[in-house]
Each structure stands twice: as C-alpha cells, then as structure tokens.
Amino acid sequence: MRYGRRGLSLDSIQSMGLGCRESIWGCWIRRQEAKRKRSLRDCRRRLAGVLLLGIAAGCGPQSKLPSGLTFLPGAVNGAAIERDGHTIAFYGDPVGELGNVDKVFLTHHRRDAVWAALDLASGGARVVAPAVELPYLAQAEGFWSEFQGTRFHDYAQQSTKVLTRNLDVQELASGGRSIDWKGLTIDVLDTPGYTRGAVSYMVEMGGRRVAFTGDLLFRGGKILDLYSLQDSIEETETRGYHGYAARAADVIASLRKLSAAEPDIIVPARGPVIENPAADIDLLLGRIQRLFLAYFRTDALRWYWGEENLAKRARRILGDTPVDWMPMAVRIRQTPPRWWHKFGTSRLLVSDSKAAFLIDCGSESAMEQISRLQRRRVFDRLEGIFVTHFHDDHTEFVQAMASEHDVPVYAGRELQDILQNPDAYRMPAMTFKPIRPVHPLSEGQKLRWHEFEFEYTYFPGQAIYHGGLDVRRENGERYFFVGDSFSPSGLDDYCLLNRHLLHTSLGHFRCLDKLRGMEGEYWLVNQHIDEVFRYSDEQLLTMAEVLAEKKRAIAEMVPWEDPNFGIDEQWSRFYPYGLEASPAEEFDLYGVVLNHLPEAETFRIRPNVPKGWKCIPTFAELHVGAHEEGRTLFRVTPDEEASGLTVLTADVAFAEHDLRQWIEAMIAVRP
Description:
This protein is α+β, with helices and mostly antiparallel strands. It folds into three domains: about 10-20 and about 565-670, Immunoglobulins (Immunoglobulin-like, Sandwich), CATH 2.60.40.10; about 60-295, CATH 3.60.15.10; about 330-535, CATH 3.60.15.10. About 25% of the residues lie in helices and about 30% in strands. The protein is built from 14 helices and 38 strands. The strands form nine sheets. It has a six-stranded mixed beta sheet with strand order 4-5-6-7-8-9, covered by helices on one side. Strands 16-17-18-19-20-21 form a six-stranded mixed beta sheet. The protein is globular.
C-alpha cells in the first residue's frame, strides 16, 4: 500500500493516504515538565500549604485545602496526605514530587489515569483499587489476550483504555467500607458511571469534607467524554452496541449519592479542584437530561423495539419527564417493487435482462437464498455487489459471494480501506474477513447498469465509514439506500463508537442535507427494514433541530474546545490498529489525528515502546488543518527476543491537553 502525504477534509475523509510533517518534540516535553515542577515547588514554598487551585488546563481562584493535604496538578492529578512522616496518595504522583508512599488509592481502572500510580506501586506503595474493576488491573494482560480474539464482532462496546501489564492490587475498595490509616478514616462510595465499577473516597480533615471522585465530575458541571459511557441496559435487554451513553443513568445516581455525602471540596482525577460541588453536580445533572431529552426525540430504535421499550430507556435518565417524540415517517409503504428481493440486510436487484446486482451480504443464509433464486431462474447471473458500510451483518459474506460469482465489489472511497484491511481498525461490529479488491466510488459517481442508474454519495449517518446509493429505474422509480442511517422513527446514532459526528459536513447533518436536496418521488431504504419510507419537510427540520440541540448540550457537558472530541473515541488513533511483526524487523505505524477544531492545530504524539524496542522518531509533531485528518509515520523495531502480543500505547497532546497512554496498537510478534 502506498501512503501519500496530504491532508483530507471532512467532506472526503478517508482512512488512508493522509500525511503531515514530522519532528522531534522531546525537548519541548522536557522543558514543560521541568517548568511545571519548578512552578510547583516555588508555589508550595511561597504559600506554605495554601494551594493555588489551578492546573495547566485552566486556573481557578485561590483556596485553602485542609492542612496536610497537597494537590499535585498534572496530566492526571495527584493528591497526598501526610501524617507522622508517612504519606498516602490518591490517583498517583503525576510530577514526581512524592517520596515513599504507604498507599495509593485508585478510583477506576483506566490506564490513561492509572499511569500516574505505576511508579508509586513499583516503589512499594500498596495499591487500593475498586473491587469490581480488579480484572482490568490485576489481570490486564489476560484482557488483551482475550480481546485479541474477540475484538471483531464486538457488540459490548467498552473502552479499551486498559493497562498493558498487570498491576498488583493489595486492597479492594467497595461502597460502605471504611479504611483507617494513621487515625484518618477514608470512606468508600460506589460511584459507577465513567467506568462500570468506579468508586470515590471521602475524607474529613480540618473540618472539611474532601471527595476524590476520579473522572465522575469535571469542574464546571462537565464530564470528560460520552463515548466511555456506552453500555448495555439490563432491564430492556439492550446490548452495549445499542446503549447510547447508557451509563449516564449510573452517573446520575452516583452524582446524587455524592451530593448526599455533602463534600466541601472535590479533587477530581483531571481538571481543577471543584470548590462548589453542589452547583457543579446540579449543572451536570441538568446537562445530561437536556441531552437525552433531545436524543430520545428521534431515536431510531423506537421503530424496531416500540414505544414502551423507549419509555423504559428514557425513564432511566429522565424520570417522569415526557419526551416529545417525532412522529413516524409520514409515508411508509410495505409492498416492495417486483424487481428486488430482500434477505436479511441484503437486497438483490434483478433487471429485465435477468442480470442481478446485490447490495450487502451479511449472512450465509442470504447466500443460500440467492442461490435458490438463481436455480429457479429468477435471475441468471450476478454482475456486482455494493457495500453500504463495514458492519459484519452487511459484510461477513461479501467476499465469499464475490468469489463464488466472480463479480466486482463496489463501495465508497471512504470505505475502501476498512473493507480491504479490517484488522487495521478498531470499530464496532466488524468482520475479520477482508474484501479485496474494493472498486472505490467517488462522491456523485454514477454507474449505468441495464435499465438502472446508480449514484454514490458519502452518507456518514450511522457510522463514519458509510455510504448511500441512489437507485433510479428508467420508468421513474427511485429508491435511496441509506444503509442503517435512518429508520422511520429517526436517527440511527445509538452507538457512539461508530463515530457519527456532529459536524455540519459530516455525520447526520450531512445526510439530512442530502435528503433535503432530493426532489420528486423517492423512497428511503434501510437494509434492515422491510418497509420503505419518506420523511416530511417538517420531520427533516425536526431531526436537524435535534442534532443542533445535541451539539449544544454536549458542548456544555465536555471540557473540550469542540464537542466532537467528547463523542469520538477515535479522533486520535494508531494505524494499523492490529498487525503482525517479526523480531528485530522494522514495521510502519502511523499516528492519525482528526482535528475537530475550526482552526489548524499542532498535535504531539509520543509512542511508549517496550524496553529493547526502537521507535524512530521517538516523538512526532503533527500539524493538522481545520476539520482535516492527518498522519505521521513511526518506524518501529521489536526487540530481537520479542514474541507474542505487545500492546503499544502513545501519549497525545495538543493545546493544553496532555493525554497519557491515550491510544494503542496490538502487535503480534511472530518468530
């Protein structure tokens, strides 16, 4: 594969052929870390225990913490309590200021936060961690070994920001337990939400109640992101893939529990100290409900599962607050045209000449039924296959079908690489079966096929790698195949990990622009749905208003300069995500960034290579234009003794954001 050096706008975003300049930035990192350490030491000497409540991400007003409690701001915060010459820490020591530490308290398992505790643990500190999250800490290597085989066909949709090596945990924390240390009582609250088993710690010192809440709450009534909340819903038998930020219900319950504990100060894992917990808790509660009031209005699952199911899901977040549901599509037709046949998610189009063209092929059953039609001479030859998007229920048997009938496979240029190289991606519900070759179609490209004309359009509604096909027959019939992007009840955006973004030129905004521009008589075709349908102008406007409201709500809810950073887990990633390598043999690994900002930005990437491995360059700087995706090349060489699976992580930084062990690639080293 040849990789060019070019930027790519959101209007034509692809996963390959992206490029930006590279340079070493180690000196910059060292200067910044040294400057931060000097500043902290000077601050502590000047204030003698009075803490300046601010961090690199944003300074706050001055305030006094209880005597004996020290705040260590950094990429992840640390906090230390000293008594009788002994010290305990919360979160860790992000700036290397602490000496010997008796214990380090973790609130959750995420490696992008836990890294700050690793040096303390290796130095002899006893690790206290949530009991529910023990498997992600003490058996982290087992997680990766299992995930290597399960990452395809993944419908659980949980974050993979898991440690790459096992961490020895000596004490387990769970709600209701109190831990005594040097006469100090540390109470544990179960506060799941940002992760499934997160806890918070409450300490009373100097007449003030201090809470250490991890990533449950960010100052200003915010939370770090929404995609980490994606999860299953037991009471409605909803699996994680369909559970849009479902742990928001747990966040709400945990915030209310925290509020009842009446902390005076919250020291979060990230961001400034929270000096008015009650106000910030109320802000975040209101913002979550505002988001979901909009989200449920146009929930695509209402068509599939019914209004009672939606009502149950809504009550978890909104209580008794009613949802103003958008009416079902104004026109629904149940009788399909005589020239097509539906098998699961597949549509077989048959021309008057008895030639056939297939749209998607996700099951062996579809293959068998199509073969039966051919034996019955409903059609006599298959001439091509079009793929709407990458999900396994649309792609699993495309290659087998193409090979059996010796026909070309077509898809949008934006999908070409993920279909040909699925192992290079970490996306939901993927097939592990490559489709090769894929004949790429460009925006607006037309194909003449017998009495039909096909026109391709990039249609990133349900997922970022998603296309639509406008099919017109000579007699005036017109059907627009939308893949899975819409149902008669609205927007198919329930899986945040699909990367359905909120830019005007990407995501459902783009799809709605396409639908609003369609004129004359046409029908929309969802690959899962027997009926075809069409929206009224009012419904198209309602969906656009809902998207705008969601964007506003998320912008207020997350501490990023653009709300898309809070819903796009893959804004920064390694490419390829999974690959095989040989000991001591160099391979190429790309750091990829989608810049969601409305202006150009410089991103800094630092791979964390294992001992004995080499990486050139060791640091890279990537200048990416506004709303563009760029990549930078790392050449990595495994140790000559390396074998088995290695999970390689990288730190990512931009502006004031310093994100440690933020992205990963899975490298299987074979002798």
